[in-house]
Design a protein that fits this description.
The relative contact order is 0.14. Helix content is about 40%, strand content about 20%. Strands 1-2-3-4-5 form a five-stranded mixed β-sheet, covered by helices on one side. A hairpin with a 5-residue loop joins β3 and β4 (about 125). It is an alpha+beta fold.
């Protein structure tokens, strides 16, 4: 009697099929994880700037704009981060506006995340990413209009 050595073709094909099924499940889950972590990092970067904006509003009486205010630009630091480019835009009243980060990652080339400040001083998070991808939004962030 001969001993069997090695694997049969059927056994190898089964292993390849199992690996294919697992990768078909894992790759989309990984891509969602990357998107969610990118947005979380962007939200953390923008949230860190709220104190500087509130300080500016308290001293100057209006929402800052990076394009015109050199002092605010120095307070906020570089307008280009590893995540994307930062900017601010005034709203309808002097104390309303948005801190916006335009994401430059490979997953979200034209996506933006912003913190809105209303006239009452309340902050809310909005993003222009399609609502179908809402599973990747950071907690407390909703689909909305980025100025």
């Amino acid at each position: 009697m001969k001993k069997q050595q090695g694997f049969t073709l059927i056994e190898l094909m089964i292993v390849v099929a199992v690996i294919g099924v697992l990768s078909a499940i894992a790759v989309p889950a990984y891509q969602n994880y990357v998107k969610k972590s990118e947005l979380g990092s962007a939200l953390a970067s923008v949230t860190a700037l709220k104190v500087n904006v509130e300080d500016y509003i308290a001293t100057e009486g209006s929402f800052p704009t990076l394009a015109t205010d050199a002092d605010m630009k120095s307070k906020l630091g570089a307008s280009q981060t590893a995540i994307g480019s930062l900017t601010t835009k005034k709203g309808a009243t002097d104390t309303e506006g948005q801190i916006i980060i335009l994401l430059s990652g490979t997953q979200n080339n034209t996506s933006s995340l912003a913190l809105n400040r209303d006239a009452n001083g309340e902050w809310s998070c909005v993003t222009n990413i399609a609502s179908s991808a809402s599973a990747t939004f950071p907690k407390g962030c909703n689909s909305g209009t980025v100025l």
